[in-house]
Amino acid sequence: MTQQTIEFKAEVAKVLDIVIHSLYSNAEIFLRELISNASDACDKLRYALLLHPELAADAGTFQITLTPDKKQNILTVTDNGIGMDRDDLINHLGTIARSGSAEFLKSLSGDKQKDMALIGQFGVGFYASFMVAEKVVVRTKKAGSDKGWKWESTGLGSFTIEEDDKAPHGTAITLYLKKDMSEYTDPLRLRHLVRQYSDHISLPIILENNGTKETINSASALWTRNKTDITNEQYKDFYQSVSHAFDAPWMTLHYKAEGTITYTGLLFIPTKPPFNLFQPDRQSNLQLYVNRVFISDNLPDVMPHFLRFVTGVIDTNDLPLNVSREMLQKTPVMSKIKNGLIHRILSELKKRADKPDDYKTFWDSFGIVFKEGLYEPIEQRADVADLCRFYTLNESGLISFSDYVAHMKPGQKNIYYITGSDLETLRHHPQLEGFAARGIDVLLLTDPIDEFWVQTYSDYQGKKIVSALHAREDLKEVKPTGDTLEKPLEKELADETLARFKDVLGTQVKDVRLTDRLTKSPIALITAEGQMSLNLERLMKAHGQQTAFSSERIAEINPTHPLIHKLASLIHDKKESDKVADSIHVLFDQALIAEGEPIKDPAAFTRRLSDFMMSGL
Ligand code: ADP
Ligand code: MG
Q: Is residue 337 within 8 Å of 256, Cβ to Cβ?
């Protein structure tokens, strides 16, 4: 077959355009990407051999070779892994198969400077070669096939493919380096980069220089080494390469479990949240090895969802090498490992939780995910609850459930919370005035997830977790400190006032009633108990989910507020009827504004307010 020219798919062309023209300062990561692909290719062949022993004829001792050529300004990366056939070349090196590249594409802003920085964040796999090379040639032959291929491209628009009888089994990628990238033919530089990024690769990486060959990595799987022989730097590099991350791990957990199941775990919690933490289908970045042979990095259900930010490796001898996906899902070995992982991670977190500043770093990045553990069906829910942290009305820093319980007021029965979109608004929420006056603390919950766990996680150590908006008993039990404004309205006056409010507000509210929860504000809104909170309703709307029924509003009146007293006496004496009605409208609209809700008739609101200002001035 003769040479064929094939256009890159549009999205590849777009990625390449940025990669080629990038002045990204970390161009060196291309080497890590190529070595990682070479290592994957060897793992794939090793795995294929288990099922097809006849392929052994095409395999040798697995290794990766770097061959720099200073004179011609060329670097070749060779492996004797699985290799690629014609379809593989077209499908894998001509489309966006890799999720990192797809994410990269989605995140492009059009601003070259910003987009370049994203290369580092997402990693663009094989395409990273074009940061340093003006031409890339891939010669490859797939195991089990006798036909070799040559793929060639400058990264501009298209690539060519032709048969190549001389290609050996495996893959050789030759980079014709850009003029200013000649550093990548320097043996010292290559050695340094391999140490930095690829030392943990479990195959020998060989530097071939003027006919001499030298292994330049440690070539032993990092997790099999003794903890005392591993430096922090090595852990960090390993973390970065398994997690495709660029930060340092916040937590490194390296252990050997010996019991009914034996496995080694090398687990990491990142410092910063990865970009795809909230993709619905995101699996944790955990790799499974069986006896050092890579099996999968997309394990269903090994890590519970609320720990999906944990990355790393587990290696066990208690599974057969040819374990299938279905089997992984069913085998009791995996569920035992899963339980062991949860247990280890939670107990390690417990140790770190004693240092609040340190723990805050974790909580800021992953608390929002971790809280999902409060409603996931796991045995360790109580441990999860102990590790959760909250901002509250009374405290400036984060506190735990047990801190909260320790500071409950004498006579206080429940743990109170309020949900909303930001801390400052919640701190000044009218519904919390009564709590503040009594010194009762309230959890301020601002993550969307909070709306959900509070519905299923209903008590902590026997204390009920109750919405502050529906608190009744404790506000009666615990007496407010400081001055209340006036004596509560007499029963008769109160009844007349409530009736008038209902009459004026009509269908805008389901009910009007008195409350103990307000001390400064005359009025506030809530939804009926058991109905969606106003905050949840706003969240659903923001996500384009029009709720067919919005919850019914209830206006709550502060019977100790002077303004309410004034209105009550006007109502009782049947005076200034129009002004009273206007006041009730304005009060209600103010309550809406305090909640961040739109008011029905802004024009009427402004007119009434201006009238009051005129009469006041
Ligand atoms: P990723 O490694 O995340 O899949 P890459 O862009 O790095 O993405 O590589 C794309 C695909 O190209 C790989 O998944 C693999 O199928 C193929 N590939 C790349 N390099 C090699 C290689 N050295 N040997 C065999 N296949 C390779
Ligand atoms: Mg890759």
A: no
At 118-154, the pLDDT tens digits run 776 666 889 999 999 999 999 999 999 999 999 999 9
């909230």: which residue's tokens? 278
HSE on the CB side for 50, CA within 13 Å? 14
Which residue has the CA at smallest separation from atom 13 of ligand 1? 92
The Cα angle at residue 388 between residues 475 and 431, in degrees rounded to 5: 25
Residues in a beta bridge with 67 = 76
Closest ligand 1 atom to Cα of 77: 23
Mean pLDDT (the chain, rounded): 89
Pairing of strands 415-419, 463-467: parallel
Alpha helices in 354-509 (DSSP H): 356-370, 381-387, 401-406, 423-427, 433-438, 450-456, 473-477, 491-505
Of 507, 561, 559, 555, nearest to 534 (Cα)?
A: 555
- Cα 433 to its chain centre, rounded Å, is 34
Inform me whether the pLDDT recorded for 398 exceeds 90: yes
Beta-strand relationship, 311-316 and 285-290: parallel
CA distance linking residue 586 with residue 286, whole number of Å = 57
Burial label for 463, CB within 10 Å (0-12, 13-18, 19+), is middle
Give me the phi and psi of 555, to 5 degrees please: -90, 135
For residue 89, the CA-to-ligand 1 centroid distance in Å is 9
Nearest partner of 362 among 376, 348, 375, 374, judged by Cα: 348
* Concatenated DSSP letters of 481-509: PS--SSPPPPHHHHHHHHHHHHHHHGGG-
Please state, in angstroms and rounded to a whole number, the distance separating the CA atoms of residues 425 and 433.
Answer: 13
| Residue nearest to ligand 1 atom 7, measured at CA | 125
In whole angstroms, what separates CA 589 from the centre of its chain? 38
Give, rounded to a whole angstrom, the gap between the first and last alpha carbons of the chain: 93
Q: Which residues are within 8 A (CB) of 84 and not within 5 positions of it... i.e. 6 or more apart?
A: 92, 93, 138, 140, 142, 149, 171
Is 160 in contact with 90 (CB distance < 8 Å)? no
Among all bound ligands, the one having the nearest atom to the CA of 12 is 1
Q: From the CA of 36, how far away is ligand 2's center (Å)?
A: 6
| CA 597 to ligand 2 center in whole angstroms | 49
Among 9-23, 178-192, 369-383, the range of highest mean pLDDT: 178-192
pLDDT digits (tens, 9 = 90+) for 211-233: 899 999 887 788 988 999 999 99
Residue nearest to atom 16 of ligand 1 (CA): 92
Identify whether the C-beta of residue 297 lies closer than 8 Å to the C-beta of residue 314: no
Amino acid at 569: S
pLDDT bracket for residue 99 (50, 70, 90): low
CA angle 512, 514, 519 (to 5 degrees): 125
Q: Higher pLDDT residue, 125 or 163? A: 163
> Is 71 buried (19+), middle (13-18) or exposed (0-12) by CB count in 10 A?
exposed
pTM, two decimal places: 0.71
Nearest CA to ligand 1 atom 9: 126
Q: Which backbone phi and psi does 520 adopt, to 5 degrees?
A: -105, -40
Which H or E run contains 235?
helix 232-243
Q: 518 near 485, Cβ under 8 Å?
A: no
What is the helix (H) or strand (E) element at residue 613, kind and residue range? helix 602-616
